Amino acid sequence: MEILTYLQQDNFDSAFAVMDRLPVEFKLSEKEVSEKDRTKQYIGLVQGWRNAGRSDAELNEGEVTALQALVEGYYVCPAEWAQNLLCFGYGICRAPLSGGEGSQPMFMRKPVSRAVGSTTMLKLSPNPADAWVAIDYRLEAKPDEARLIVRDATGRELDQIPVSQVEGQAVYDSRRLAPGSYTVDLVNAGKHVDAQKLVVRP
Asked: Taking 60 as the threshold, does the pLDDT of residue 2 lie above it?
């Protein structure tokens, strides 16, 4: 997603500009206006701690509380981004909307409504990653033992994430990986579909 890319680059002016263009270019429903405003709140929070020279893993109590307020009762993009950061960075997790109760999942999945791209079947963000990475995937065929495979620089398999939908997103806890470069492979029916490089920051 464009906003996550800008946040990864600390390009907050462009992130805000994307949000400000939405009501000019599209007629937004009340719900969409609320999501836009919550997204701008999230951008502002990230800008605050990044401008203070702190990483996503160095939030103060007020920032954690503000993220929790963004999450409470919502499952739209800014709430999911905030929840991913809280869960993988601070152990403050909630069960995903699709089920599970009282657990702290290693992988959370949610459907995405659009294709990742016309040719790209796999997209990682943020990349480089600090504590977590969202992996958007798309298959052109029904899943048949489909999975995402995390490999180290030598090609050794480190982790697998089962894929049960044609299109979706998995959130992976990258803290389990040492800083460095990795590859995320998308495989379906025993065939390689796509691969993307993942960089884990120190």
From this structure: yes
